[in-house]
Amino acid sequence: MYLDLLNMPAQPSLHTPTRLIEVVYFRNTLFQLPIHILPATMIIVTGVTMSSISQTVYEVVSGDPILQQCISREIVNFTKLARKLKPIVSQIVGHDVAVESIKMSLIRYAYRLAEERYTFSREVLAILANSSVEVRTGIAIITIRSKVFHTAMPLLTKLAIRSRFIAIMQSITTATIVLDNDTADEFIKNIDNSDIVYVQKDQAAIVVVSPEDIMYTPGVIAYVSNILAQNSVNIIHIESCYTDTIIIVSKNDIQKAFNILMKYIDAAKKSLKIGNRSTHYL
């Protein structure tokens, strides 16, 4: 919304009545403005502009990754989607919005998304196509309280020499240590039970080793997580270390997760080859 504040006094007098006008949606912010109004001054709250409708539609759709994917793949009926979005868009902008206005905003969004996603997708596919996948089984995840993490470090340093697998991540209240099952047993024996928050044994690790460019390319880990989620693979733990992405899954899901990732890596390689040929012939 925007306010026509013509003839509004720069400094209100003591006799100027004060009225609180609620601005429902203005420049991405929900807030209230105290407006000082002279008795003879008319303040007109003008209707929401098309640009604010477009911005609202953009923010609503951007908050739904699945909807974004459907739009980018051109499998959406814009008229039906506009009808679905009409209640929430109307609520945000503060008045009834026509379905056609929302539809026009969706079409503009689709064009914008197509332009952004082409470059984004090529960069992500290039990283994925040049990645390799390693699998480790018999993995345990141990979560301990942060207060004992530093005292546990000498033990971890000692165990790391002979451990088949080790990964460590510290957060504010806890620290997570990923070890092979045998090393995990020895670690747990030397930690007070009251300082152990959670233990998960017999899990499996997938290590995706990527080119160094992954450090500067947004969306790679999100893409990998998304394709696993779409295929009902639950990620128990995930962390990124330089060029390695470590994904811990249930041992029951490891074969499926590995096959899915390899399928998408092969598809990325083929997609880039087709794209390069198309560019060559242009």
UniProtKB/TrEMBL annotation:
Pfam family, one: ACT_7
Classification via Gene3D superfamilies: VC0802-like
Record-linked InterPro entries: ACT-like_dom_sf (IPR045865), CASTOR_ACT_dom (IPR027795)
Protein origin, superkingdom: Archaea
Domain CASTOR ACT as annotated: residue spans: 199-261
Name of the protein this chain belongs to: ACT domain-containing protein
Species of origin: Ignisphaera aggregans
